[in-house]
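Let's practice the habit of predicting before peeking. Look at the sequence and jot down your guess about where helices and strands might fall. Then scroll down.
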Amino acid sequence: MSRLPLTRTMTVATLLLTAALLLWVLPRAAAPDATVACTGRRLASWSADDGPTTAFARYGDDNTRVDDWTGGDGTHSVRLPDGRTLWLFSDTFLDRVQPPPNPQGQPYRWRTADRGGGPYLRHNSAVVMSRSGRPERTLTGGTAAAPGPLFPDPPGGGWRWPVHANVEPRTPGAREKVVRVLLWNRAPGTGPWVFGVPRATEVATLSLPGLRLEGITETVGQTSVTDPGRRVLYGTATVTDGAWTYVFGGDDPPSSPASSAYLARVPAGRLAERARWRFWDGARWQRRDGRAAPVLRADGRRGVGSAFSVVRDGGAWVLFTMDTGGGGTAGVRTITAYWSCSPRGPWHGPAGRITPPRPPDAEPQYVAAYNPQAHPEFTASGRLLLSYDINRLGPGPADPHVNGNVELYRPRFLRVRLAPVTR
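Done guessing? Here is the structure:
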């Protein structure tokens, strides 16, 4: 019987021991995101939460300053290490609010701009909320005399809308933290692209604790995709689970009320590193975003709104969206949910529905609710905080109505209880 030389035996043993130690020390980084058994979740009950709704209304109505937030949509949030919360908004009004009645006789407050012309609208902003839950400060760009968007408009036209944000180490392993904000870069459009042509997903970095904008990096460019309806913007939701941050996104088909949901993943703490992004193609993770396949495909029964939210609950993944497959006006009236045992799907649902309250209006049929966003950092007594936005949809331009009733362009909040799906 032959024997290995002693030195070779020791080398093999050393390699085996080293491999075993690495597997023991780094199991979460090495293991794939497995589908695990879970119990489905459904929307069981809900109630209006007047606390944050009133807090934002009070802040917007306060005319101590006339260059701060009086209304906006988007409504994403991230808890900061010192206990404050940063709220991110897309199109934002920065102006004065007048007491009722307005010139049309409606018993609501209305906006005027001290700078002349119409209300002062900018493409994004952020609001800092204190540890006690009181909005205190609006973050914008530009100058004091002419405040602009916090995340400046791209060169050559267009705008940036902030979506989800995470607190991450400045560099892998560093003790210093920063805020990474995912942005949707859109170009001006007409017709079905009145809300802009999808152009790219970007990541902005804000310093802590000062929240100063340090830079913006493109992570997923989409201009090479000829059909704008097939371009995917990522960041409407992120969930960090173990070694990975899962980043959900959607396409924007102009001929359909529903979008398809897509999925990317990034090693936790590395959202700003484009080379670390991977995209699910239906079977495996790909480097090329063009190979991504929907994890929830829009069809006649299912689909997601252009903005949706995802959380973990009871071992399951739960996705909140407007009920785009509900028919009629459900896509701008009713919130529903889907659940899965893996971020990759399969997704099951719809699992329950909510028709949230909308503010009173002379023509309530034109008042839309949209963009449900979960805020798990505010979960209390097992009930999740869920926001939704309010706007005016047709006929004619929305501006006279939104400007004449500040309640039409401010977030509202619900407390939602999830329960196991009953077979």
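How did you do? The helical segments are 6-25, 27-30, 50-61, 399-404.
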